[in-house]
Task: structure prediction
Amino acid sequence: MAHPLPLQNVLRDDEPEPTLDRDTVLAEAPAAEDRRFRVPRILGDEP
Amino acid sequence: VNGAAIALADAVRSGTRSARESVEESLQKIATGDHEIHAFLEVLADQALERADEIDRVVASGSDPGRLAGVPVALKDNLCTTGIPTTCSSRILEGWRPPYDATVVERLRAAGAIPIGKTNMDEFAMGSSTENSCSGPTRNPHDHDRVPGGSSGGSAAAVAAGFVPVALGSDTGGSIRQPAALCGVVGMKPTYGVVSRYGLIAFASSLDQIGPLSATVGDAALMLEVIGGHDRRDSTSLDAPAPDVLSAVEAGVEGKRIGLVTELVEDTAPEVAARVREAAEALGSAGALVEEISIPQFRYGLAAYYLIAPAEASSNLARFDGVRFGLRVDAPDVAAMNVATRTAGFGAEVKRRIMLGTYALSAGYYDAYYAKAQRVRTLVADGFALAYLRFDALLGATTPTTAFGIGDRTEDPLAMYLSDSCTVPANLAGHPAISVPFGGDELGLPVGVQVMAPALGEPTLFAVAGAVERAAPARAGGTA
Result:
């Protein structure tokens, strides 16, 4: 038993809805730039 | 129905008491008493008073502010509150302000309740004593050298100390019921899916449920009616209205078949077992048919729980990566930043459970640990199903012992885990359960009696809990 409920495929209609405000969310991030989350380099600089 | 929140809301709605007075009284008690208890991480004095004035204006205008009008509520700090720090008592979320309210918070506000503060907890709800908090332990109002239980220890202590009439907690393996028992208050875990988890910071998603803590069974019933019911933002939310439970509290137990679970009596301290047997006798005197039943599968519940819950937690806590919220410890590349952030941000118990969980889910051990634990979970559910062929509700202890000393179990994680042995079966099965105070031990420390019912059996649960409450003896130690 992985789950206490027999619910399956709980989906809503595929219609666009408002989501959280981007600026409010980014204001809580440790670092943001150009309306995106900013992170340190992902790939090394070795060729 | 008897209850401090019920009476308070009635008084505010009828204009005999102002919401402002009610909030001022709560704030005053917190200001006087919480420096010793440390139930709260954050007190929302200005916001609460502002909201109280709004409620009073609604009453003055002749409208009804709702069923919890002017009632101060304490919220466990894993429930998201718009613009108000929500930390899970973890360094990794220090200073984070959620951009939205949890559904339960939204529903409380809509019913006129007034959030008065965020309560202390074991970090990410992992613990049974509220000692695993980055802000230090909460103390049991009945004895300041003892723990309040956990992980909703701040919420339980806030109610026990009389700071608020009602609070919300979350229960993954007993985190509402166990602290309720240790603090001498009522704590209730609903059927999985009855209360929306939207805005509850997840620990183990197939087990977590939000529920009320209160001084009386009636207040817990009112709270459940307000916070329960379908929510489309939680895909595990049951498509059903909130259960009708307030009317059940005084319905009595005439003819109800109640099973006293051997495993939830025998494996507990003698004085706890004695109180549970007294509660069973009292239910018999009130007209219930009480018989003992052994559910041997319960003894395997704890081991399964401590694989399933960490496995789910190890996945859920991956979101705390230093990118989108809370703490970031800088490092030259992303992977090193993730590691540095988690190393500094998570406490020892959270790290232990993430490691246990990832180990149990790893390729070579998945079948031996996680898959086997899931099979044991089915066995526990089967044990319940068999018992409910004969009984309407089950009775046992909420905890193996009364409140233990601060520091007594912090060096021995397994001793701490054993605190949850009586409560985890209901989480594994997804069933509702409630702890009701029933007398005390020789030191006057509170004992909790646990009532369990089948899925969506909340009306029966509250009927039995109401009867237990009416039969409860006074505690030797007096009031907190």
User: Anything to note?
Assistant: Chain B touches chain A through 35 residues (CB under 8 Å). Residues 367-390 of chain B form the longest helix (24 residues). The radius of gyration of chain B is 21 Å.
